[in-house]
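REQUEST FORM: STRUCTURE PREDICTION
Request ID: SP-0412
Submitted by: Lab K.M.
Chain count: 1
Length (residues): 182
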Amino acid sequence: MTELVAVSASPGWSGKSIAGARFGAFEPQAILSVAPFAGAGAEVSQALQQATGLPLPEVGECLGTDAAGVIWFGRGQAMFIGPDPGRFTQAAALTDQSDAWTVLRLEGRRARDVLARLVPLDLRPSAFAQGQSARSELGHMMLSLSCTGADVFLLMVMRSMTKTAIHEIEAAMENIAARDAL
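STATUS: Completed
RESULT:
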């Protein structure tokens, strides 16, 4: 039987630090879609809390830390990122998404400035604070953006768009650095 080996979505890329922002890959052990069946939200939230220590998030919310978190991902859906919790409930559709999404981390005092060039959201701390999550676009790509710290963001893009997302973010970082140099 063939053994499959996990490979990075961006082999050879080690991240970038420029213009007051640090950008790199974040590789969680598992990415799990959690979609409660009709009327089972409270039951699934309780089961998730028992399995991971985190309940289902409210709309536009992200809970936890980089080590383990749950992100609102759309109507009736959340993404758990962290150690694989296994099959913790029969009241939800649980789908392993680990090979479908790439998680990138952007942090630093200029992270919001970098994102403001690419994401059509109000990213001021008063509008998009720690613990908030949104579905949006990064250029022309689908994006899940979560603020996990004062100036720390997790970006989830489809794995097939990883290199494009990296290019766009690095270009925005370089543009900000060039503007600062003037």
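NOTES: The helical segments are 41-52, 111-116, 162-181.
Reviewed by: T.R.
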